[in-house]
From TrEMBL:
MF-aspect GO terms: 3'-5'-RNA exonuclease activity; RNA binding
GO biological process, one term: mRNA catabolic process
Name this polypeptide is given: RNB domain-containing protein
Record organism: Corethron hystrix
GO cellular component: P-body
Residues in the signal sequence: none
Taxonomic superkingdom: Eukaryota
PROSITE patterns: RIBONUCLEASE_II
Segments forming domain RNB: 1-294
Length: 437
């Protein structure tokens, strides 16, 4: 990420100011298809000067989509609109009207919905786990913790970004050849997927893990048929484990059959839309410019140079991801230090001889519970053939339950705390069996 003065002021597409940009422009039908789909002659790529008329955020766009503000039946300048729903600082400038902006957002949303439907019909696959968001107090400590909402406004932006990235990848491969910087997503581990499928089958849930299309079809069917959202959330979380990380490559250094993006189920993809926060996008812009100016043969980096840069991007990206995940755990632990969660529903996601792993459904946190270490006053017996651990409180240990069976997908009640000694982390303890609502 560029420093804040650059990414929020100098390089951001702020309202009513001219900004130099790189654009990928195409025409779409209302059904989500592209006009004259096929090839790249119908797409325009080039340098542009952009002057945005309004700087919307996801919340404001969502309010527009839901017609909480500027509904289609209303007219006028909407000066009496609730500023909480559409802040004055985010309203149109330069002679553009609230009505026009709201209408455009709703049209784009309708097209994005159709595009998203087409993508999944064509085999795209998506797993959405819980992502926690924190609001910090004056001292920089987390004071509010809640799941980050994924709304239609997020999906609207996602659809156009995905399509732009795909079209730019197409341009790079057809005009830049081996120096094209693309992003591939390899197929997941077959063994891992089969383990999830077997565990689900034991619960009477059928998941076809043959490919991304059958996986998405299985999840869509389960969403419609399964009346237990907790089990569905657990299966979704389990499916993330065998998934591999997407990575950048130079097209010429990898066989064509390995360019494919598994999750999107498309033959190629790249990152073009976020040059403020990703170096790979900057390099993609440079290669794209070379294709436009006819200077690919004189490009200053070779295939091997670009592949080495891609490898470095992958390493930095993985380090950043791990740091973010660890930071989220630390922030949650600090939050729990003052506000422990005493009764949360969790599901069992893996089994050992004297331990098991749970998914805390409200937070998306996965945590291993070591019975002898975390619960010394509980007697346990492991039944290997049944993949079951039987728990009984020791005599004299005051407890609200008399026995408990830990098996895959079992629902239990846990408490979440901050560890008392370093390193700081989330500590999950058994409270008792889950007895329903």
């Amino acid at each position: 990420m560029l420093p804040r003065p650059l990414c929020e002021i100098a390089c951001s597409l702020n309202e009513n100011v001219d900004r130099l940009a790189f654009s990928c422009i195409w025409t779409m039908n209302m059904d989500g298809t592209m006009l004259s789909e096929g090839g790249d002659g119908h797409v325009w790529y080039g340098r542009t000067v952009i002057r945005s008329c309004a700087r919307l955020d996801y919340s404001t766009a969502q309010n527009i989509i839901e017609e909480k503000v500027a509904p289609p039946s209303s007219y006028g300048d909407h000066g009496d609109m609730d500023e909480d729903l559409w802040p004055l600082s985010r309203r149109p400038t330069g002679g553009h009207s609230v009505t026009d902006v709201a209408s455009d957002v709703r049209v784009m949303h309708k097209i994005a919905q159709a595009r998203r439907k087409l993508r999944f019909q064509n085999g795209a696959f998506a797993l959405h786990g819980i992502k926690l968001a924190f609001r910090l107090g004056p001292a920089g400590q987390p004071e509010v913790c809640s799941p980050y909402p994924i709304r239609d406004s997020n999906r609207l932006v996602e659809e156009y970004m995905l399509l732009a990235n795909y079209l730019v990848a197409q341009r790079l491969l057809t005009h830049a050849g081996g120096i094209a910087l693309i992003r591939r997503h390899a197929e997941p581990s077959d063994e891992g997927l089969e383990e999830v499928a077997a565990a689900s089958e034991a619960e009477g849930l059928d998941i076809d893990v043959t490919n991304s299309t059958t996986l998405q079809e299985s999840l869509s069917r389960l969403e419609a048929e399964c009346n237990d959202p907790m089990i569905l959330q657990t299966i979704t979380a389990l499916l993330t484990t065998p998934m591999k990380n997407a990575e950048y490559i130079a097209a010429g250094c990898v066989p064509e059959e390995e360019w494919r993006h598994f999750a999107l189920n498309i033959p190629y993809y790249t990152h073009f839309t976020s040059p403020i926060r990703r170096y790979a996008d900057v390099q993609v812009h440079r290669i794209l410019l070379a294709t436009i100016e006819g200077k690919v043969s004189k490009y200053y980096l070779s295939e091997n140079d670009i592949h080495a840069a891609a490898k470095h991007c992958n390493e930095r990206n993985m380090s950043s991801k791990k740091a973010q995940e660890r930071a989220d755990r630390v922030f949650l632990a600090i939050y729990l230090k003052k506000r422990p969660m005493m009764s949360e529903i969790a599901t069992v996601t893996s089994m050992g001889k004297e331990s098991f792993t749970v998914l805390v459904l409200s937070t998306g946190v996965t945590q291993k519970v070591n019975i002898p270490r975390d619960h010394p006053l509980v007697k346990f017996q492991h039944f290997a053939g049944e993949r079951r651990i039987h728990l009984v409180p020791l005599a004299g240990h005051a407890c609200d339950w008399t026995s408990m069976n830990i098996v895959m997908f079992a629902k239990i009640v846990v408490s979440c705390h901050c560890t008392e000694a370093g390193p700081i982390d989330v500590l999950v303890k058994i409270v008792g069996p889950y007895c329903g609502d």
